[in-house]
Amino acid sequence: KAGVTQTPRYLIKTRGQQVTLSCSPISGHRSVSWYQQTPGQGLQFLFEYFSETQRNKGNFPGRFSGRQFSNSRSEMNVSTLELGDSALYLCASSFPPGPSYEQYFGPGTRLTVT
Amino acid sequence: GDSVTQMEGPVTLSEEAFLTINCTYTATGYPSLFWYVQYPGEGLQLLLKATKADDKGSNKGFEATYRKETTSFHLEKGSVQVSDSAVYFCALSDQNAGNMLTFGGGTRLMVKP
Question: Does the CB of A47 have a partner CB in chain B at under 8 Å?
Answer without folding.
Answer: no
